[in-house]
Amino acid sequence: MSDDCTLCELPVRGEPHTDPDVEGSFCCRGCLEVYRTMGDVDPEAVSADGGDADGERDAEVPDDAETAFLAVDGMHCTACEAFLESTASEVDGVYGVEASYATEMLKVSYDPERTDPGEVGESVSRLGYRANAPEVGTAVAAEERFGRDELRTVLGVLGGMAVMMIYVLFVYPAYLGIYPESFLHESATSVMVFVPIPLISTFVVFLVGYPILRSAYVSLRAGEPNMDVLIAGGALAAYSYSLYEVLTGGVVIYFDVAVAIVAVVTLGDFVQRRVKRRALGSVGDLDFDRVTEALVRDDAGTREVAVADLEPGDETVVKRGARVPLDGTVVEGEAAVDEALVTGESVPETKGPGDSVIGGSIATDGRLVVRVGEETTSTYDRLLAQLWNVQSGGGGSQRLADTIAALFVPFVLGLAVVVAGAWLALGAPAREAVTVGVSVLVVSCPCSFGLATPVAVAAGVSRAADEGVIVTNTAAVEGLADVDVVAFDKTGTLTEGRMRVTDVAAPETDEGALLRYAAAVERDANHPVADAIVARADGNEGRHALADGGALNVDATAGDGGDGTGDASTATVADFEEHRRGAEGTLDGTRVLVGHPDLFAGGDWALPASVESAIGAVQREGAIATVVGWDGAARGVLGTRDTPREDWAETVEALAADGRTIVVVTGDDQSETAAFEAHPDVEDVFAGVLPQAKAAVVERLRGAEGTVAMVGDGTNDAPALAAADLGVAFASGTELATEAADATVTEGGLRSVRRLFDVAETTRSRVRQNFGWALGYNVITLPAAALGLVDPLLAAIAMAASSLLVVANSGRDFGIGE
């Protein structure tokens, strides 16, 4: 039998899950059920975006190769991907490279005996990029990059304003005949015009416009000309011609065109980067959550060592509140271990000697000694590596503007050369032929193309923010409109993500006494269920009551025996002891036990039939049953659960009404998903899915159903969010999940998710309208420029007008109802 899961191909911990009707062995029940449902789907088909090239590249990477990720500063467009891959692949010892413009990441597979990530970073840094390990100061570096972009944009706009002011005061009036042309040759005027304009223009074109010029160079060297080739070509042509005019005593200068091109495009690019700058955010700054040092116990005592130096069999000491460094087995101590960061399970599980623990989990209320496993790995680090791996792959779609550029740019460049040559052949002066060629380049300068997507997306992002959604990946604003399947995580997404006492059954006592005794003991416990019981007793909220273990009914009173409020908060519990699955203590001379029903199954405690019936009723409702007993007998049951969000059904129904398939993927047990399975618009519920397998489930869904959007909040959702075509996370969830997502819901709950889809559909429509206008504009203006009907100045004005129309169309009201 294979040691790896048939579905997600990750190691099977413990006894594998099997079924006679399903071929293979699985790491969890969830993987088994997913394979049963979609087993005939070829998982390789999911990677179609990567193409055969990815498969070939992976095939060339030896099994003993190491993988590193580099955060790259300076990627300006998708052409940078091919250029970086080509450059980094030339480093000796590098087996394969994958670059991603969307996440500004470089994934490198290399031979550690021959090279290292630092050398790869140096190779691309020599070309004007900066590459560093993402784990080191990524958030700070991202803020620094954004600050530089902001400064560059401000300088470009100010420089453009300065040049245009001089043009308005001196140059345009002379062109229009208001001043005689000799006015520009007068010494005082000449100094005020022909000295500052070239200087400022040089600064704007070559310093502010450096990213554009570099992108044009990179795209040409990579053999994939992009829109920046036209932008750079038009700006440089206008600048070079104008500089020639100044040096030869001419007065027909087009520095305004060059400056306007660079300033407008830089501003548009800044808008896009501002939307995108949180895409990586602090994914690389996870040093707080990642364990780098560990306490090792040996014959010489306890010492601190680097986690990387741990070996199989080492015994590590995990203090209360600390994280387990690596996967292993408990050899000493007992503690409630919070694995929510990794597994998504909302309730910590008590671990003792012989139990397996996951690297990255937290010992919440006790000290553990953990023996490191054979593989010296951390599940948390594997999840993080899986996230980087998915985000760094080439799964994103190329920008529509660059797709058009693949045909449009070579056509315009060729057209400009042919037109200028034709005018020369027909006997036109060289200056006139060059002017016509520049007009062709400038009038086609794709500011409208360049702004068509980012401005529409920025408007969509702004509207989404009004609805309580922060978009961190611009592709999401359009891509959500094409989603076929919406996969929801349960805990913290469809539910509130916190435990509450929802069911109270007191068949052997009164409700007030039950709450009083339970809260008094649980007040000293460190567990979400204990916190929920104490909060319920202190707040005495209205709740469901299970009378005599029967049907649910609402009861807002505390019962005949008092409210259990003040007494619970002031009662003193003696001999408190926290168990593996509960807690006990002495209250007013009475021994009280609170915990799992199994604690009452022995001979020391009586379990009346009425309480046993109440336990079954609570569990059938999908709640966690906590039994409360004293004087040697169980007295009642408290049911706690993570309650569904109020708007979950409305959201599911609205998305399903638009023709989308709704599924739920959760690490929780199937008993806790009954309400979602019962909803007619929920197509499938995949319960018990381990975090590593969630990404595999999403990939299967992509292969079987089409485009998939994942909505989640936990760190264990991060790989699934990244593996989905689009990911939406809740800000109340973990940082890693929100950074893996394309959009983050900050307020408005699930209703904001539905509004985000509406915004996406409108944004996609606006983008298409903008491109339609841009294409139509070029169809009209290019022939006019080629015939000499449009000079570079008019071309710049037409270009600006085209961009303004695009902006105006993008900024129209979205018409989304309240």
UniProtKB/TrEMBL annotation:
PANTHER family: ATP7, ISOFORM B (PTHR43520), P-TYPE CU(+) TRANSPORTER (PTHR43520:SF8). Residues 66-132 form the HMA domain. GO terms for biological process: copper ion homeostasis. Its main location: membrane. It comes from Halarchaeum grantii. The keyword Amino-acid biosynthesis does not apply. Belongs to the cation transport ATPase (P-type) (TC 3.A.3) family. Type IB subfamily. It holds the Pfam family HMA. Coiled coil: none annotated. The chain crosses the membrane at residues 154-179, 191-213, 225-244, 250-271, 404-426. SUPFAM superfamilies: Calcium ATPase, transduction domain A, Calcium ATPase, transmembrane domain M, HAD-like, HMA, heavy metal-associated domain. GO terms for cellular component: endomembrane system; membrane. The keyword Protein biosynthesis does not apply. This is Heavy metal translocating P-type ATPase. GO terms for molecular function: ATP binding; ATP hydrolysis activity; copper ion binding; P-type divalent copper transporter activity.
